[in-house]
Amino acid sequence: MNRIQSYLLGLGLLASATVPVLAQESPKEEDFFKIVKVSAPEGTLLEVGGLTVLPNGDLGVATRRGDVWIVENPTSRKPYFRKFATGLHEILGLAYKNGALYCAQRGELTKMVDTNKDGKADLFETVYAWPLSGHYHEYSFGPKIAPDGSFFVTGNVAFGDEEWWRGESRVPWRGWTMKISEDGRLEPWATGMRSPCGLGMIDGELFYADNQGDWHGSGGIIHVNKGAFAGHPAGLKWTNMPGSPLQLTTEQLYARVDPRQNKNDAGRYIKPENVVNETPTLLYEVKKNVPQVKLPAVWLPHGILGISNSEILEIPKGNFGPFEGQLLVGDQGMSKISRVFMEKVNGEFQGAAFDFRNGFQSGVLRMAWAPDGSLFVGETNRGWGSAGTANEGLQRLVWNNRVPFEMRAVRAMPDGFEVEFTKPVDRASAEDLASYKVESFIYKYQPVYGSPTINKETHGLKGVKVSADGLKARLIVDNLRQNYIHQLTIDGVRAVEGSHSLVHPIAYYTLNNIPEGSKMALTEASTRNSATAPAKKPAAAPATKAGVKTGAAKPAIKGATAAVAAAPTYDEVKGLLARHTCLACHNTEKRQVGPAYRAVAKRGYTNDQIVDLIYNPKPQNWPDYATEMPPMPQVPKADAQKIAAWINSLAPAANTKAAEKP
Questions:
Q1: At 352, is the secondary structure helix, strand, or coil?
Q2: Please, what is the Cα angle at 513 between 508 and 516, to 5 degrees?
Q3: 8 Å CB contact between 214 and 449
Q4: What pTM does this model have?
């Protein structure tokens, strides 16, 4: 019974016998997966750069400040922290092998051993050292252990001096994946990486996650086979060196794609910006002529499923219930974890990405499985910013063994998609086409920082067939678009149990290949669509004796002013903020990657000025923010106006000054 019904009962205006039985409120992600803090000694600064679980269940923790800790009884209320090593340089990965710990420092892969068994490392061995230019952005990530016992490590690009926006490889193997043997032999493996923080070994295959930036329109998961080119051209500088597995040159790529290295009349380079209404270059089209190009197996739409994707981790058998065997992907900027279901179609990986768990205290960088099936989550945000405001963190994600109502998987079909649910669906809602919506979009391949979503299309739905057990729904979809991201929004389907809605009703499927095979006959499917059912005609209003219909509009009172439309509430705009990725960088009250909305409101812009700034940001207005806001031309004007009105509703009531110029 809700509060309004209780109030009416108290007034005697609603009989208790007539109160309907209401559906329970649908559970949220936190009702199934709880975030628990791992208690650390006071003064311990855990800016986590690496995590690994040792054979005895202890947890190895490496920090960006150069410390390595061994945590005994890490899932207990009082874990014991023992410092294993200190004085290393910006550790951004940790692995265990044969009694030794291995970490990627900024300039080398290091082996650490406790030879005298006193609990502290006393042997530090350089396995392999790679060149450095000294640029701040030359982070190194890893290692991940390959099936043959060697190590995969990745290197960030630097950025230019005059062209400060352009990623560049100043020394060999920046922007590369390196495979390093235990005895220190380097095998260049693949290039095209920009900021390859997220590595994962899945069934013996290497995958990595990159961040949005120049030449990367959005983050995503890429299968890194030997000789792959992941899209960023900086590392192509070294393909003429011995051992390079690919021969593609920068000049060959730029013959296909304009790098836009243009100069003004003063001879200075011009920063490339997004061009609206151009004919864009698309990565899959480049691949037709440059076969070394590796498309993302799964795109992770920017601002929705992250802004700086990190660790990729497989869910082991027996962990996290219906999601075992799938992938989790951390995100440092949005302090969250996404979930990925992957399949192989025509020999290539592709699949669907879903939101999973938000709300970590800092940026999610590393993850590792505890013996009890919970997930250790290592976090940091120094210099990078994150939705979680803490500078560091070590937390656990614990499943309570209750199964959430979710899309377990989305699979590509020759004529659409098959959606598998974790619980049986209510057949009436699942057989209604109005419960589903399918849209598609893609990103540009360009030297500009990131890309708006482009080439959007809404797809017609012809029919849906629900399986006998209620766990699957097969959708027949018009005009599937190969290589595009297909967004499936399923906000109308309800579970049999509790009539609950999906915890996360949106899936993003990367359709690199459309499967071959037979299509489903429309006669097998439901074509019912409650949204297009003919509306009932309203009954005619009764007439008075004088022939005037009751309810006729009264004439306006002379001198009355029109009511001013009330500004929308947060609940009314939060869907727009999420859909258009605004929440990736902005928070209502606190500074994040960009300024807080309340800080924007205090500037005194008009609604129209805010709309214009959404389409054409002016970074010079906010000089103390390192990351520039990209133009957002894809936001419909009606949505932008609604967002602007809400932002201005946050301004102090006393703020009546004239609007400042943007």
A1: strand
A2: 120
A3: yes
A4: 0.85
